Amino acid sequence: MTFRITPLPLSSFQSWLALDDAALAERGARRMFAQTPNSAPCRVSLIDAEPGEGLILLNHAHVTAATSPFRATGPIFVRENAVEAAPAVGVLPALLQIRLLSLRAYDRDWMMTDAEVVEGAAAATWLDERLADPLIQTIHIHAARRGCYLAAASRPASD
Asked: Which is a Pfam family this sequence falls into (predicted)?
């Protein structure tokens, strides 16, 4: 068993990237610039913005199932020059490897069935083990310290 990490799709954010600062503020978002290395993880490209690089900070709904008590939204960064990541099966992007992660496993009804906090370098083993359980549909990966959504993990599609 193995996993595939899925970024958020660039198409969901292209209209945000075209907005000026005033229009972003009207929608509760902000244009920001990364201040330090590894401080602004882009959820589309799955890489950290370089210091000085422009980003949009906005709220994103990552669990949207109306019937789940685990519905959730939170702040995310999208780099202004983001290119959608396509990690290979079984590959944990560096952005995830260097962080303390909160891993949250969900079943088909978006009920949380398991959760753990792990150092990023150890996340691959946990993902593999949990996705071996046929009841688990997806795993959301969050930054443990701030709680922000980073990416999702699921079983790779069958060839």
From this structure: DUF1203
The radius of gyration computed from the CA coordinates of the chain, to the nearest angstrom, equals 16
Cα separation, 2 vs 91, in Å, equals: 9
* pLDDT for residue 159: 45
Determine the structural domain holding residue 84 and report its residue range: 4-154
Judged against a pLDDT cut of 50, whether residue 16 lies above it is answered with yes
Q: Which positions ≥6 away from 72 have C-beta within 8 Å?
A: 61, 62, 63, 149
Instruction: Count CB-CB contacts under 10 A for residue 83.
Output: 11
Query: How many domains in the chain?
Result: 1
pLDDT at 22: 98
Q: Facing residues of 102 across strands?
A: 117, 142
Tell me whether strands 54-63 and 30-33 are parallel, antiparallel or unpaired: antiparallel
Closest CA to 6 of 81, 87, 82: 87
Residue 113 falls inside a structural domain: yes
- Tokens linked to 135: 């009841």
Residue 46 Rama label (left phi>0; alpha psi -120 to 50; beta)? left
Structure tokens at 118: 């792990």
Q: Which pTM does this prediction carry?
A: 0.94
Decide if 103 is inside a domain: yes
